[in-house]
Amino acid sequence: MLCTNCGATIASGSRFCGFCGTPAAEAPAAPSTPSLQAKLTLIKGEGFDGISYQLNAEEHIIGRLYGTILFPEDVYLDHKHANLYYDSGRLMLKDEGSANGVFIKIKQPVELKHGDVFLSGEQLLRFEKVNDYQSINGLEMPNDETDFYGCPPEETLHFRIVHLFRDGKEGAVYYATSPAMNIGREQCELSFPFDRHISGRHARVYEEKGKFYLQDLGSKNGTFHGLTDPYPLNHGDYFFAGQQLMRIELTQS
Questions:
Q1: Where do the DSSP E strands lie in 152-222?
Q2: Which of 106, 189, 243, 253 has its CA 20 to 30 A from that of 26?
Q3: Backbone angles phi and psi of 162, in degrees to 5
Q4: Can you tell me the distance from the alpha carbon of 109 to that of 127, in angstroms, rounded to the nearest whole number?
Q5: Residue 135 belongs to what H/E stretch?
């Protein structure tokens, strides 16, 4: 530390300058580390804000039966469905192994892995890679030189999208014969004309440099990607758990 009067060095622990006797200046207090304050807001069906929860504890379980944020009438929620918790100063969102998953609203294209699920409007869809034609039907070629019926493959398949129903069963399977597939209500490679929650051009799945991505196309209600790992939340993030749409608000104090 330097003396504020004569500029001489003051020994550590000394209260006065050894040359001129000027009292040593007190070291400035270390700036306090801001603490994160978080609020969870439930979004009503009309898009208006509903009840809010202050997230002041270390963790906050969302569920139908167990936890601090309960929705006992939501049959699509597990008893213990999701967890909001703090880790190294970040608010994290984790799926607690629920049957129906937790879905985060995407803001930028996100990379897709084989088996990832996502929501566009009311449609629950699963992304799958396609490595070759034998993987389509899961059958192995016979060893006696017998061929299967069917048309010969004429186009390259890049990936496929599986339509999932509410009873857990698989519906139609849509194959992408080009590197991109648009999803929407009309004039798309994958169209759902009777879904009033899906935009005309809602989302896109595409391949780029050997990787696959999910992109929202500026839809009104957003595209939601199913979580597979704990997710660090940011201010303004939306997510679905069961039938509950929720928004996160973060402030520093």
A1: 159-164, 170-176, 180-184, 190-191, 203-208, 211-216
A2: 253
A3: -105, 130
A4: 14
A5: helix 134-137
- In the sheet that holds 223-226, the strands lie side by side as 49-54, 36-43, 244-252, 238-241, 102-105, 223-226, 117-120, 123-129, 159-164, 170-176
Helix (H, G, I), strand (E, B) or coil at 136: helix
Closest to 69 measured CA to CA, from 81, 141, 58, 253:
81
pLDDT tens column, 199-235: 999 999 999 999 999 999 999 999 999 999 999 999 9
- DSSP for 46-108? TS-EEEEEE--SSEEEEESSSSSEE-TT-TTS-SS-EEEEEETTEEEEEE-S-SS-EEEEPSS
Instruction: Record the tokens describing residue 71, joined without a space.
Output: 């929705």
- Residue 102's H or E segment, with its range, is strand 102-105
CA distance 201 to 191: 9
Contact by Cβ (8 Å): 136, 242 = no
Model-wide pTM > 0.70: yes
3-state SS assignment for residue 220: coil
Kindly state the tokens that stand for 188: 């798309």
